[in-house]
Description:
- By secondary structure, the chain is of the alpha/beta class.
- The chain has two domains: 5-248 and 454-477, 3-Layer(aba) Sandwich (Aldehyde Dehydrogenase, Chain A, domain 1), CATH 3.40.605.10; 253-443, Aldehyde Dehydrogenase, Chain A, domain 2 (3-Layer(aba) Sandwich).
- Helices cover 40% and strands 20% of the residues.
- β11, α10 (262-274) and β12 (286-290) form a beta-alpha-beta unit.
- It is globular.
- The relative contact order is 0.14.
- Residues 145-149, 172, 174-176, 204-206, 209-210, 213, 224-226, 229, 232-233, 247-250, 281, 382, 384, 410, 450, 455 line the site of NADPH dihydro-nicotinamide-adenine-dinucleotide phosphate.
Amino acid sequence: xxxxxxxxxxxxxxxxxxxxxxxxxxxxxxxxxxxxxxxxxxxxxxxxxxxxxxxxxxxxxxxxxxxxxxxxxxxxxxxxxxxxxxxxxxxxxxxxxxxxxxxxxxxxxxxxxxxxxxxxxxxxxxxxxxxxxxxxxxxxxxxxxxxxxxxxxxxxxxxxxxxxxxxxxxxxxxxxxxxxxxxxxxxxxxxxxxxxxxxxxxxxxxxxxxxxxxxxxxxxxxxxxxxxxxxxxxxxxxxxxxxxxxxxxxxxxxxxxxxxxxxxxxxxxxxxxxxxxxxxxxxxxxxxxxxxxxxxxxxxxxxxxxxxxxxxxxxxxxxxxxxxxxxxxxxxxxxxxxxxxxxxxxxxxxxxxxxxxxxxxxxxxxxxxxxxxxxxxxxxxxxxxxxxxxxxxxxxxxxxxxxxxxxxxxxxxxxxxxxxxxxxxxxxxxxxxxxxxxxxxxxxxxxxxxxxxxxxxxxxxxxxxxxxxxxxxxxxxxx
Length: 479
Ligand code: NDP
């Protein structure tokens, strides 16, 4: 019997096709999940709109809304192991990483509870005999569409601020990772969140996602995923004149300058690309090194990459699990083959690991590629896997030009002992996030998003709640 999902105020099996969920570490199907028909999608959105308009939700005072978010956060903390398991079994990340992400999801709900209680309305300066008060109001129904790489954190980053802002949410998770979303919905229900405030519609983007965005009740879309999908969603949103927040892909430059602590930098580079098997939008996938230090740095990176322990995600010593699906593993392998055709040298990796424990899973070795220029396809296209391209630079101008010579602009890392130089380069790089002598350090309180093809809008931080609100100015005559 297919698993149920929450839509139109109840848990239903759905009249759409049944999804099979496969464990990428074993290749075995472990769950079947129902999906909604078009009528059920329409009904779910109509019910979400009614729930958004209901006085019992719309008129809640900020501290009352914050109370729901605190209860959800507590539910996540309480169910942390189950949530981590649900993600691990579907996307193959290690249990340790999944637990950290579940804890981060709880922290996100707590943060937006605090934001909800403390964000103020505005009283802009009057230019006449009136008082103007600007309030921030919900859109109504928000469609949240999420990818498979980190559903626990990404769904919290959308659902928590959207609810804090007073909306209802219809969530369409990736078809690869539905279980974490269903667990989150269950936790919300147990926390007392009224039905219809959070719905989950499992299924494929091309049918459930498209149909969701066509519903007139959907007044805003928040999307995280690939750039091409983001472009298609932006076109739909433009036709419908609804706002779209887009967190998209990256091909982030990671930079080691001559004066850096090379060993610490290499450790940061290895974590920055291989953690989560490179399935991170901010993965530092292009490494720029001074030409004279290229070979020395590659040797250190190879040693570190080859010491990473691959294994089953449940293993206590496992540092990297499989990729999220066999299909995705094949896509990564195709990119490495393309690199070979483009004339690359494979400094390490470049194939599936050997050993019976890897036979059925979607495993791939951490791979380091040298000998290409930044113009190569593997240096320009997002691989979203454990593949690092090392590129030499000659001087600072050459470095900045190469680093910015990409369609993307999500993140950047700089390793140096000269903070003035770090600041100068940081300001010159097209990226929404820059790390200096660290990488992938993320905070819910700092805005996050991309320049160029990496997205539109910023999630997280105080403004992350404003993303889900529209301003209304009310004038009171004082004559
Ligand atoms: P996709 O863009 O393929 O899919 C993301 C979500 O959109 C999925 O739920 C997908 O459904 C759905 N979708 C696909 N097509 C449509 C459509 N036409 N209308 C509505 N929804 C649709 O990305 P992936 O899931 O493959 O995730 C990997 C990508 O996400 C990478 O490119 C990565 O860079 C990006 N990403 C960006 C982040 C950021 O913050 N900037 C963070 C994490 C990932 P389905 O599952 O059926 O495909």
